[in-house]
Amino acid sequence: MKKYILISFLTLLFPSTLLASELNSGDIAWVSISTILVMLMTPAGLALFYGGLTRSKSVLNTVAMSYLGYCVATLAWVVLGYSLAFSGEGQWIGNFDNFMLGGIGINDVSGSIPTLLFVTFQGTFAAIAVAIVSGSVIERIKFSTWLIFTFFWVLVVYSPVAHWVWGGGFLSQDGELDFAGGTVVHINAGIAGLVLLCVLGKRRDYISEKAQPVSIKFTALGAALLWFGWFGFNSGSELAADAISVNALLVTNVSTAAAALTWILIEWKDTGKPTLLGAVSGTVAGLVAITPAAGFVDVGGSLVIGLLGGMVGYFFVVKLKQLIRYDDTLDAFGLHGMVGVLGALATGVLASPAINGAAGALYGNPGQIWTQLFAVLCTIAYSAVATFVVYKFAALLTGGGRVSAQQEDMGMDEALHGERAFEFEE
Q: Quick check: pTM over 0.85?
């Protein structure tokens, strides 16, 4: 009893001293660095990756959708998104307790890091999730529609799913394993991209003109920056500088390398040529596939996931797209949505209890597969319906969501921004 009285007395006299004992400087340093790495992924990595893949007349618009999307999503997150994702104890969604980050003091702690650092780290995830969606509708959505869509998608679609998985919602209570965003980020964004491309329709010249990437060099640089930033994305999701974080870093690297090689080997066999574009596409597939599993699988499991990620990515991005000719401009649905599904289900099979205590089917817990599948189906269903509603709302506010035929023919850069990515002397 005396001990508790003493602690209470010291808390009143020296609150900052006791707070400091809860914090870990190593964890703070690593999560801070991880936040910076994940931030780099959107306005630099994804912008270059997507920008290099599009046509010369729409490069700046493509980059701007990631760049300004990051800005809009950041504001949506601090205004209300974080509160909806991480406040309260509801099964489905948070509450308004942390509106404008109210109720969060500078000395508040989450685990061993300041709560404000946790807020910032999680906000970079929300931003890249919505930026990924843009890849499905490049070259045909109004920029004004996109900005409004971005703000409300973070609040209506991303934040509730984040609450389900990471904020104490029903999927978390059900035992779903999603270490760094397989369902929350990639499946969510991939399905949203599919919905948008279906609603907006194909580009006017999609069948008659085979769109050539403006710069595979830009795309390769963007993929390298994504790989670099993904170490913060996956390893930083442990929110601590510990052994699980190090394992996440290792398996992220292994899976990515395996997927890149798998993709180009399949491509080499299929077309007779191993392309750099195939290698960087495989890189992203490997990064996406390992994301939900990074904190739960060993190096052997990551190798399997990487191999499967390269195969599944190639099938959906190359073969299925050729077969049914859906216009997923930069393959957000194939690379993120479907490879994300693979990663989520593979986690249910390959999760090793030796890594983080969670066991998959391979280690005697077949029920984990059904838990993962249930989470995947819930995310797909909600993302599809909610994305449709958010898009319709954004389109209503902007007089329709698709650019005019004249603007599309001219190109997004000059028609919407009055700029050109490349200036040539005439």
A: yes
